[in-house]
Write a structure and sequence with these properties.
CATH class of the domain at 303-875: Mainly Beta
Strand content: 35-45%
Shape: globular
Radius of gyration: 30 Å
Distance between the termini: 27 Å
Oligomer: single chain
Number of strands: 81
């Protein structure tokens, strides 16, 4: 760093010689910053030295207004949209009025604690405190209360929900959480070493996972309950440089001088590499087959273009505040977007080459930002919510060609979905009811109603929430058993045995063997045995079947098949598999398949969102011999298909229309509006339970560990169809192909007209083991081969969304996804999906709220065009690789803090923060003050997490290090050293001391001070925009 004669920072030079410069006025106020790409940001001040305007590198201006005591009273963004702030007589922010004139009100008690927050819909959340200002209750707008209890050391020791169910916490002498006891009395136990590192966790079934660390408290070894070890190595800067799994397969990572990941070398020595521009934007990604994707950025570091190895480019444009307003894809198709004054998308227009709209998609919202209506030419939906933001009804009125269906939802006191009622053309029809245990796990689902056959499914779990049993009934009373299922696991939570039976008769039994890397090596079914082989990157290389043809696979460096007849071109596009030749458009969508032997041509058409809309099959003379057309709603769900089995022939095309409940089909209708099927889904994604046709005939699915339907039984438990598949999902045999059951491999829909599976975002061709177009979320899907299916490990993973692989073994966390209904929607935001293999995936549209009210939708709330670019698409890439360090427990309570805006959510245990205005847009180094006293240093203190302190000293603070999901994105400091010392007892990594010039401190940091747990000590939560102050200050780690 370079300083001028007045000791002002004027230049920073990083290890790669990239230069950032700073310019000041005569009052020592910073007035300009020019980054290494020579993009300049300017700052203006009033006579009191308060920042009043920021002009960005594209001349967008943000202004700030103050009252006479220095409170920010208005912020106007670069689109000239103003948010106003009003304060009470104690200068506490009490009213926020956004640019749409939507008002949020906050009230306080005499101690400054937030006691109520009232949103723009006049719904109020109340907060209560004890005499020590600890939050002891949150009551939501539906009068549902969660209470909290503490010990004398301010540790949270109990949380009681609105159904009077309690979770308890115990601590050791150092106030570290050691035991969590759930409402059923099951415990998770955590142990620590003297440095505060988690050394073991023991789950509810007494299964222990152990952790080891190096001298710098970096996690080096994880040992599972079967003694399988995963090892990690680091460089001197604590970057992970090697990850070795329990099979001794190592992935290596390399970094540049700025600790940016530049290479990933897998266990097969295949290299993926990355380069960056001068300010750290990702510039290129090169896959192991030398296909390079190149990114460019505008002056504000927003992604501007994305070009593939073929030189085909997508472009993006933004408004003054960063909203995406236009995209042009590689096929030169353009989409424009418009927004309201609070940056919610209102309109999406698809444009022709002259700029005329050929398709318009509209979105409307209520006063708190929940989606209320959305429609396009093919679909229309209206949503209503209760005061707690839970979705209460979904109406498809206005959707062309389909019956009017209204879905109504009710919830219990903790937000679990209780009932779903469907009303068809004004007549109430079906009713689904859900029952839960004290851990909110679904234990019963029933389906009944007007003209609906009774169905009931009971589920039970072990103490670790692994699914242990399912019983299906053809009546509500539970006297007519259809079939039972049982699940058994080993100590590493791997499914070992799955049985379906009726009484004493076993209908199907499946057994699983695993290697140390948790890969299935042998699968036993009623058909026989399948043994699996893998390469060093876990790709399936061979399957030895005892009952059908064996399989062998080989791959190039990027996972493209190299079996005899296969040839893959640039950008990983399959050119031929020896049976068919393939062609693509510039977006990478398959446009043609030609059968080599016969010359038969299959043509594929795609819309602006790269959704398959039509498939046409022609004979060698060009005669159309089959067609299929597909229609989608605004949420990217397929809502209709029309199939003409003989194309130009005399046969009549058949039409099917689909009505969804979340991500799952609830009802189907034919082209005349006659209901043809009703479906019953389980609590896990793609867990199809039963199908009922118009005649009331019920068929039940018996599935394997991946949710693949292998047997279909009737109400008597008799198997009416048995299906076998190869490893990648091709059907190899059926005992009764005439049985009409929509779902098959991994629980997805099979389209007989094309031979493809519909995986929501994309279509999967099991014949070649890949998708027919590229992943809409690019490298976020976890594969540099954007056509790849589950990284060529189909025995171990599934991909229900079409966006990327998920673990496939049944028995994990059930989560909040219930029957596909609303995904546990709270506050209009997408829910959490439980996976057949355990774990959860956040539902809803990512980051921009268009699909926010739908819930449970995996990225379907909006078109992928917005998803990809709406929030920093330039970083949607597989880097940097970050290891997850063990936490004390998944439920470890955090000391309640007052969260920053927006409105505190009723999710414990966090203490709401008195509402503050957003700070004016920051500047990298604030002005020095002329007063000698202001040149003195103020020291603040932080107890860094184990192994992090030295890195913070050497490299500073970066937003991505404080952006964990569910966090508040703040770096917490203590004003008094004794508070940091309390936390240091836990982390055992010393005290980070940061010396900040007093004038700078008063201008930038002091405003963040607040009482810790009611005082007398103070904490200082520092937001990202002030990290530059920390990075320009003197930092040292004292142990």
């Amino acid at each position: 760093m370079v300083y001028d004669v007045r000791d002002r920072l004027t230049r920073t030079i990083d290890p790669l010689q990239n230069v950032t410069t700073y310019e000041y006025d005569v009052a020592d106020q910073l007035i300009a910053v020019t980054d290494a790409n020579e993009h300049e940001t300017k700052y203006d001040y009033d006579d009191l030295g308060r920042q009043v305007a920021v002009t960005d590198a594209r001349n967008g201006v943000t202004t700030t207004e103050y009252d006479e005591v220095g409170n920010v009273i208005a912020v106007t963004d670069a689109n000239e949209h103003t948010t106003n702030f009003t304060y009470d007589n104690r200068d506490r922010l009490s009213i926020i009025t956004d640019a749409e004139q939507q008002i949020t009100t906050t009230t306080y008690d005499d101690a400054g604690n937030v006691i109520s927050v009232t949103d723009a819909e006049n719904d109020t959340t109340n907060f209560s405190y004890d005499a020590r200002n600890r939050q002891i209750g949150i009551t939501d707008p539906l009068n549902r209360t969660t209470t909290y209890t503490y010990d004398d050391a301010n540790n949270l020791i109990a949380v009681e929900d609105a159904l009077n169910r309690t979770t308890e916490y115990e601590y050791d002498a150092l106030n570290r959480n050691t035991i969590v006891e759930n409402a059923l009395g099951d415990t998770v136990v955590t142990t620590y070493d003297v440095a505060g590192n988690v050394t073991s966790t023991t789950d509810e079934l007494k299964r222990k996972t152990r952790y080891k660390y190096d001298k710098r408290n970096r996690l080096t070894t994880t040992i599972d309950p079967l003694n399988h070890q995963t090892k990690r190595e680091y460089d001197g800067n604590s970057n992970l440089i090697a990850l070795t799994d329990a099979l001794n397969q190592t992935t290596n990572y390399e970094y540049d001088e700025l600790d940016r990941q530049k290479k990933i070398t897998d266990a097969e020595s295949q290299v993926t590499s990355f380069t960056y521009d001068k300010v750290g934007n990702l510039e290129t990604v090169t896959d192991p087959e030398a296909n390079t994707t190149t990114y460019t950025y505008d002056e504000l570091d927003r992604l501007q273009t994305e070009s593939n190895e073929l030189g085909k480019t997508r472009s993006y444009d933004y408004d003054a505040v960063g909203n995406l307003i236009a995209t042009t894809d590689r096929n030169q198709r353009s989409i424009s977007y418009t927004y309201d004054k609070v940056d919610r998308t209102k309109v999406e227009n698809w444009l022709d080459s002259q700029g005329n709209a050929i398709r318009t998609i509209n979105y409307t919202y209520d006063q708190v930002g929940r989606l209320t209506d959305t429609f396009d030419p093919d679909s229309s939906y209206s949503y209503t919510y209760d005061s707690a933001g839970q979705l209460t009804s979904l109406d498809n009125a206005g959707t062309p060609g389909v019956n009017n269906v209204v879905l109504d939802y009710t919830y219990d006191a903790v937000g679990n979905l209780k009932t779903v009622t469907d009303t068809i053309d004004g007549t109430q029809s079906g009713l689904e009811e859900f029952t839960y245990d004290n851990l909110n796990r679904v234990t019963r689902i029933t389906q009944s109603g007007n003209g609906v056959a009774d169905k009931r499914v009971d589920m039970n779990y072990d103490a670790a929430s692994q699914l242990k049993g399912i019983t299906r009934y053809s009546d509500l009373a539970g006297t007519q058993v259809v079939a039972d299922s049982s699940y058994d696991y080993d100590v590493a939570s791997r499914l070992k045995e799955l049985k379906h039976f009726k009484g004493t008769d076993v209908l199907a039994a499946y057994g699983f063997d695993y290697d140390a890397g948790n890969r299935i090596t042998s699968f036993t079914s009623p058909d026989g045995t399948s043994d699996y082989d893998y390469d060093l990157t876990n790709q399936l290389t061979g399957t030895d079947h005892s009952y059908q043809n064996d399989e062998n696979y080989s791959y190039d460096a990027n996972g493209n098949r190299t079996n005899n007849g296969y040839d893959t071109g640039t950008d990983n596009r399959l050119l031929t598999d020896g049976k068919y030749n393939y062609s693509y458009d510039d977006e990478g969508n398959r446009t043609q398949r030609v059968e080599i032997a016969t010359g038969e041509i299959t043509e594929y058409s795609w819309d602006y969102r790269n959704r398959l809309t039509q498939v046409v099959v022609k004979d060698t003379n060009g005669n159309v011999i089959k067609t299929a057309g597909y229609t989608y709603d605004v949420n990217n769900r397929r809502i209709a298909k029309e199939v003409d089995p003989d194309g130009d022939g005399v046969a009549t095309a058949s039409i099917e229309r689909f009505v969804y409940d979340g991500e799952h089909i609830a009802l189907t209708f034919d082209g005349d509006g006659t209901q043809t099927h009703r479906y019953l889904h389980g609590s896990q994604i793609d867990q199809i339970l039963a199908s009922e046709n118009a005649s009331g005939e019920v068929l039940w699915a018996l599935t394997d560990n991946q949710g693949t339907v292998r047997d279909v039984v009737d109400n008597s438990g008799t198997v009416v169809n048995h299906i076998t598949y190869d490893s990648f999902g091709q059907i190899t045999s059926e005992t009764n192909p005439n049985v009409n059951f929509r779902f098959g491999y991994t629980g997805r829909e099979f389209d007989e007209e094309t031979g493809q599976y519909y995986y929501r975002a994309r279509y999967y061709d099991a014949g070649v083991g890949r998708f027919i177009n590229q992943d809409p979320i690019s490298f976020l899907g976890g594969n540099t081969n954007l056509y790849g299916y589950v990284n060529n490990s189909p025995i171990n993973f599934i991909d229900p969304s079409g966006y990327g692989p998920l673990g496939a073994a049944i028995g994990g966390a059930i989560g909040g996804f219930v029957g596909g209904a609303v995904g546990g929607t709270v506050g209009g935001v997408g829910g959490t999906l439980a996976l057949p293999g355990g774990g959860t995936i956040g539902g809803g549209a990512a980051g921009i709220g268009i699909g926010a009210g739908i819930g449970g939708t995996i990225g379907a709330g909006i078109g992928h065009g917005i998803e990809e670019v709406g929030k920093g698409i330039g970083k949607l890439l597989p880097l940097p690789f970050k290891e997850t360090v063990p936490r004390p427990t998944s439920e470890t309570p955090v000391p309640p803090r007052r969260p920053v805006p927006p409105v505190p959510r009723p999710t414990p245990p966090q203490k709401p923060k008195p509402r503050r205005t957003p700070d004016p847009i920051p500047f990298p180094v604030p002005p020095d003050c002329d007063d000698d006293d202001d040149k003195k240093d103020v020291t603040i203190y932080k107890a860094p997490q184990s192994g992090v302190g030295e890195k913070l000293v050497k490299y500073g603070f970066f937003p991505e290090d404080f952006s964990e999901p569910g966090g508040d994105n703040l770096a917490y400091f203590a004003k008094e050293r004794e508070l940091a010392e309390e936390y240091e007892k836990y982390y055992q990594d010393g005290i980070l001391e940061v010396d900040i010039q007093k004038g700078i401190y008063n201008a930038r940091i002091k405003k963040h001070e607040r009482l810790y747990q009611g005082g007398p000590l103070h904490e200082i939560p520092i937001p990202h925009q002030d990290f530059d102050v920390l990075n320009s200050a003197i930092r040292r780690l004292v142990k």
